[in-house]
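Hmm, what's this shape?
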Amino acid sequence: MGKKKRKSAKKPSRVKKTTLKKRHPSPAKKKLVITIIGGAFLLLLVLFLFYSNFGFNSDLLNSGSSENNPGTQSKRKSLLPSRSPGEEIKAPKTHFEDFAGSESCKECHEKEYNLWINSTHGKAGGEPGNVEIIAKFDGNPLVFKDAVVTPKITPNGEYVFIVEQDNRPTRIIRVDAVVGGGHMYGGGTQSFFTKLPDGTIRFLPFDFIRDENLWFVQLQEGKEWTPVSKEISLNDLAHWTPHRILGTMEGTSNCQNCHGSQILLEYLPEKKRYRTRFRTLKINCEACHGPSKRHNELARLENHEELEDLDMAALATFTKDSSLNVCFQCHSTKDMLQDEYLSGDNQNEYYSLNLPILGSEPYLPDGRIRSFAYQRNHVFSDCYVNGSMTCVDCHDPHTQNYRDIVGNPLEGRFDNGQCTGCHASKARNPELHTFHKPDSTGNLCVGCHMPYLQHQAVGAELDFARSDHVIPIPRPAFDTQLGIEDACSKCHPDKSVEWLQAKTEEWYGELKPHNPIISDIMKAENVRNINKAAELLLQTESNHVVAKITGLSHFIKRFLKPDMYYLDPKIVDKLKQLSESDNIDLKAFSLMSLHLALDQNPEIHDYLVNELQNLKKRERAVRYRWALAADFLGTRYASKGAFTDAIKAHKKALEIKPEDAFTWLNLGTAYRQMRDYKNAIDSYKRAAEIKPYLTDIHFRLAEVYSITGDREAAIRWLKNVLKYDPGNQRARQILRRLEKF
């Protein structure tokens, strides 16, 4: 039999037995427990909503970002270009040698040539001996606070500015190029350029305005135009010393390709200088029609009438937007995507017409000019949005005179025939519509619907007024609210806005409302809730494309940040719908928005990869816009002190366009502002590898090395400046100071 297990005897307790009372938690502890439980519940709810809408990504939880986890990167498809730069699908490139000049057109098109040669385009500019000089090169000095500048003609006929600046050697600056002739109604000017030893042709900061008959300058602060005076120093000027370049060069202040024809600026490494070439500083035939050399060769063949193609597109057959883009080569505020554009190239590859809306915001919500712009606000007009209006419906392309919609010449810019060709009901008895006397300005279509408005960026001292191409209806109260002069006040400055508004409503009753999307953009200005703002700003159904871009741009700048992790699915869906637009700018900015805010999400990332793969021939143009928009946001964040967001945005731009020297430069500057000098140096060096001839990069490297105390490295990078620009006096001066210590 097994032994019985013995129960162990209880040991006497060393603790004196007491009667235990039931404890109740204190109110503070109760509150803490409830808070913890509530917080945990909310966290679980947020995680559930996030992953139920966007999918689960364990790597995201493990690392927070694929950027710092190489294992994660290998699982994600790359947004980088699938081809090297040399393998990219590019549009055919136009070459300088493809142009023959306007004289070659005269042989077959003598009538059109003779109309053009006497037009404002035919007289737009040239070298001093070949163009009318309206400015006073009469030897009378222009007296500044710290200098005397004397415009004069030398005995051998050269136009020069003699600059005598305090404590500086006298400089004689020769005028090598003239742009403008004071032709423009509302404020016509003439500008001057000089050729520098580095091969560039640079804008001189002394302008002449015809109507006021005086010299003026543009100030650095505020960018306003003002007559020369003793209160202004040369260093107060926006363009002193001369740095704005004729032609197009990325990363510099430049005139793009507007003030001349076939302007080509190239850096020649073997000569360590630039080369500036142009056919003419007039706006020639090929500026609109494209290169004519091959066309001329074909047209001179005996059987040319049998040929199907003479290598010259007929502009009269262009679609509405294609026709407008011919004019928007110059008559628009646009941002450059890459260098060396020539007429005939695919404009979308070189310029974005809508990136300024995201950047400098040249237009008010309804399209009127906020600061300084050109005639591209035409695309906000109802005549364009819901009609077919192009520039050449009113402007003769050869004479620049005015005509009606069927091409009949008109008396001038104020002839009602510009409008009554379409609005025929207003032609028979205009007074019934205008409520003004027949011989008054108020009885002119242009007087009320296209008033000449001062561009506010240049100030009010000198006239620079341009006709309002939005073609709005008069709204005195609304225009005053926007801060612009209304059409009625131009003729009736003695009347109050309230009186003018009441009179307008008395005549016309309830005024025609704005396009719904324009109204919604304006309503959104005071909306702080992201979802409500998205309803107003992200509109997918409207046919007003430029307003859709405006709304998207406002939404991006007000509500989006890098790596937001969550956006309402309705907002994501709207951004996806906008990204499917045929408009290349709208597509690029929408894709950039998703990339900026939600690329860490696998479903969004895959969507972006697929969209890029489907772009094919448009990939390059979309990538350039996408990257430039993200880079712009980076500089915007940095300007507000949000350097971490700036760095993220610049890096996202480099995911899309990794060989962009200026994005690397901006990334380096963001690091420098955070005093992360190692990463600043690495970023600047990468920029220098891509574009070694851009001396600004070498200056910045020298500066950072000086800050870190590495004098030898600073000297080395300053010598690099002289390697690419031997005549750079700034580098020589700094180098001399460093070598003394």
Summary: Confidence is low (pLDDT under 50) at residues 1-23, 45-74. The two ends are 105 Å apart (CA to CA). Residues 123-282 form one domain. Residues 59 and 71 are 9 Å apart (CA to CA).
